Amino acid sequence: MLSRIFSTVALFFVLGLAQAQDRTVIMTDWAPHGMHAALHLAVQKGWFKEAGLDVEVQDGRGSGSTIQQVAANKIDVGFAQLGAMAPAVANGLPVTSIMGFIRAGDNGLLVPASANFKTLKDLKGKKIAVPAGSATAAFLDAFLKAGGMSRSDLTVISVDSQAMVSTYTSGQVDGALSTVAFFAPIVADVRPSSGILFSDVGLRVPGYGLVVHKDAIDKRTDYFAKVVAVQKRAWEYIFQGHEEEAVDAMLAQRAGLRLDRKVILGQLKAYMPLFNTPATKGKPIGWQAEDDWRAALQTMQEVGMVKPGWKASTFYTNKFIP
Is 67 helix (H, G, I), strand (E, B) or coil? Predict the structure, then answer.
């Protein structure tokens, strides 16, 4: 009888611990790639559980879809492109960013290393591929203008997103408008490449960050503070020279997908230099600058993605960054 009582007490104790873990769904933007490494690292090392969070990382189907899931309260946190979040907010979705990672932006023109293209003007008379209907394509004219060029200086080919890699690696084009840090490692073995980034010509469109429902900011303060703290810890650990360990954690978490370790590691290392801007220098990982958001909104206004009059503070908060 006594042993049965102890067993019952132990069971309730275990159940109590399980209930104490705050169940959390974090959805990424797409299939696994290098920028997801910190999420998987934190799961693998048990850092979320240490913080009292039972986290499930789900793969998404595009930043726009992930942001909509957050807005509909179907997931807790979205890992998505903040450049896609901004027009969503302007169109009425109740979301905001609580961390910004790729604060310098990751969009640009992928170009072959052998061509030695350093500026947009070097591509005058050349042919470039642009992903049809993508958010990146909307910035093409502003990007070219900032680099002293226009569409008339190039041959622009609209290509389905699924065909971008094959179009570029086959040599049909001299450049490809894309998220450079994502694509460059994918094509590296066939066509080693570098990039001319939006930020190289003064355009700052924020890249990846954490997106949450705006109404939850004040209701779930402790919860979001834990998520941010764990992600800050994970990224700081990666920047201390643990890139390979982070990729190994990711491969372990997604073992059934047979991910290419070389590509994932290449993506992670390509994204890491894009974490800071002059306005965020010396600030904690994830902290977002008013000046960067103001500049991004100005660019988005120029291309018609958002209307004038929006305050930068509408799109982000640093409330959870120590």
Answer: helix
